[in-house]
Amino acid sequence: MSGALTTVTTVFAVFITAAIQIFVHLHYFLHMDRSSEQRWTVMTFAFTALVMAIFIGGSMWIMFDLHMRMMG
After folding, report:
1. 2: helix, coil or strand?
2. Rounded to two decimals, what is the model's pTM?
3. Handedness of CA 57, 27, 29, 14 (dihedral sign)
4. Which residue from 26, 24, 66 is spatially nearest to 46, judged by alpha carbons?
5. Is the pLDDT of residue 72 over 70?
6. Distance (Å, rounded) from C-alpha 53 to C-alpha 43?
7. Using CA atoms, how far apart are residues 54 and 48, in angstroms rounded to an integer?
8. What is the residue-averaged pLDDT of the chain?
9. Cys staple from 5: which of 9, 13, 36, 45, with CB 3.0 to 4.6 Å?
């Protein structure tokens, strides 16, 4: 709020700390690691992340296309 960092630096810092927080939650709270006992949990998480990426990416693509068609 004081303007000490530029907008790009602030956004980059927020994304980095969010990524670190995700990995901390996955490891310490969900106990996901590379052991063979956790293989199905990790595969389920990876599939869920893939489906979410497809949904979010598809939604963004549709919204961008609709925006271009409406503004054109």
Report:
1. coil
2. 0.64
3. negative
4. 26
5. no
6. 15
7. 10
8. 92
9. 9
Tokens of 67: 């925006």
Summarize pLDDT for 3-38 with one digit per residue, the tens: 898 999 999 999 999 999 999 998 999 888 888 888
Which residues have CB under 8 Å from 45's CB, separation 6+? 26, 32
For residues 45 and 32, the answer to whether their CB atoms sit within 8 Å is: yes
3-state secondary structure of 10: helix
Q: Is 32 exposed, middle or buried (0-12, 13-18, 19+ CB in 10 A)?
A: middle
| Separation between Cα atoms, residue 50 and residue 29, nearest integer Å | 21
Structure tokens given for 57:
């990416």
Residue type, 25: H
Spans of all domains in the chain? 1-30, 36-72
Dihedral pair phi/psi, residue 31, rounded to 5°: 55, 40
